């Protein structure tokens, strides 16, 4: 191929570039619009006025191009710790410099579209005069003799029109940019001349090749080279370059997206190759070789469309969708929502996100394994989010369904609804979190200075709604009925009730708290209903009846690990614009939602959860301190696991997208339904702990261990009514446990539960047990062990009321002084037993025992 030729402009063109626009306009008007003047009667002088009234030039500005989204990654293919997960664009374009374009493509566009490009000053007068003859013959504007510079002007206006947000404005601007009229041609000519004065030929050529439409929503030579030949623009060969330039005149029927267009493309390609030969850009051998290569399925090497989150990295599509839907929030893109959306459509941004692809892959693979997306018996769903403690950076966002936002959809295995986020950011209506929500009642309990070792009634029961104060909505009316998952009864410490997730304990706690405050704790820690409504504060909500998002629950548990510091979830660490300017990222937005002391004590209580039952399957057991809380709704419609360390919070949901299948009845990957959430959590947290190892959890606040509770008084030996009076005066609830066997006089208090001296919360139930008076003291029939024979012992016991005797033997050697006497008894002397109890006496015997 010959070197790129850039000869000096001809004398006529040079003069045209130097003379005033008014003088030049006369020539242009005569050549271009004489037929129109004859038809319309417009005077030449008025047309010259139109020409002079046009702007002198327009800027070669950035055109709409691709946006790239990156995730943090340390695996193969990463660059500087990041890996590109998605390409998003309104127009598929990637601007490149002149040096990044194959010389063949440059020669092809000049030879095929404007062979005197390097000789004219924006308007080719030779072609213009030739076009004028045709216009006179046709009495219209059949030819405009457009140069590459004029086409650049036209494409610039088309591109601007296509970028308008309003559909009607967009259609009108596009029509105005392409309509056949002499005033549009005049505008193109004047602006083309202005461009030639302001920019070099290389800059104009580069701008044209970056803006040109190559069909199939592909713009610019770089995107076209990648889309149709799977190479960069700089690597295009001769026939590929000519085929791409063949598209620009008729992109809708000559693009290379469909074999039906190949013949039309080849016809135009060969014309361009011939033109290149004519102007000396290539020699005969190059021409013959290129023209002999067909445009067919073997020579066209397309790349699959990569636009949108549907074409994103397979593990990251849901996060990609969340990024795109969050564009209006990105302040680094502009001052207003409209400006941000407009700039994003214009493109050219590189967004370096918070997503950790190493952990994301582990979470997504586990989600697909333990919550398969092809279940047909019911609508099984799963979602997992992880938020970094102290920053709010979203590290993981996984879902069992495949992302598909096309009109056709993807069938049973796919959806366009992001179950991790709210309706506004993904279309989800949220899910009840069950007992993972109980943590907010625990936190408010601690906020009020109450202790984790306070004891409360845990028995399932019906409570009066008036017991539940709600300063936000007023008193609750009606009964509050609840059960316990394992039918637990009795009193529990708050710590035990949390570890065992006893509903009764939490209703007892809530009855001593303001329901509005419990709701406010959850809201202050970022928990949100998916529908955007305010969190409810009904008594039932304390065990998780609000439809919340996994992402917000993850942020709440991250706050516990961060010493009570809640941070709004953010997803962009850094943004780079098309001009390589660093725009920064999303600023972290944090607040101290709860005190460090309360956070530490909460985490301390929640560490015990990981040691109980199925929750243990969530623990990676890698030495990293971890806390968590399980959650299961009525009928196991939804199951949750929320976990955290000092570095992050993770929330995993497995349940019904809709419907009421009991998750405990299903079984996938050899794992029963109750454990599915734990296996997903385990895989996620194991991967996270490798890159974000948590530190030791802080010690609980000693003041919050015992809190402000009261020791249960010793009411033994008192009457039942006396005990009732003492207990209720101290704020305890009283319960009659009935009579028990005792040596005390009938009716006297024997003991209580909790026992005397045990610290219990205000309002806790103390059960009192009274004596039946039915035990008597067992007399001593052993003495010194060598003076009471069996007959005497039996007489003594009978006289005391014990008639059920049993005799045992103790072997002793002959001559032993104990031989024949009672040496031991059970029950022991001085103890108390019911008269019908059996008393066993042991008798020494020198002869062999039977």
Q: How does this structure look, described?
A:
By secondary structure, the protein is of the alpha+beta class. Helix content is 35%, strand content 16%. It has 28 helices and 30 strands. Helix 4 (103-113) packs across helix 13 (262-278). The longest helix has 20 residues, at 21-40. The radius of gyration is 43 Å and the shape is elongated. The termini are far apart. Residues 5-25, 29-48 and 135-144 have low confidence and may be disordered.
The DSSP helix count reads 28
The averaged pLDDT comes out at 88
Strand order of the biggest β-sheet: 2-1-3-13-14
Query: Which structural class fits the helix and strand makeup?
Result: alpha+beta
Low-confidence stretches: 5-25, 29-48, 135-144
End-to-end C-alpha gap: 121 Å
| Most strands sheet | 5 strands, mixed
Report the C-alpha radius of gyration, rounded: 43 Å
Helix content: 25-40%
Task: List how many beta strands DSSP finds.
Answer: 30
Overall body shape: elongated
Strand percentage:
15-25%
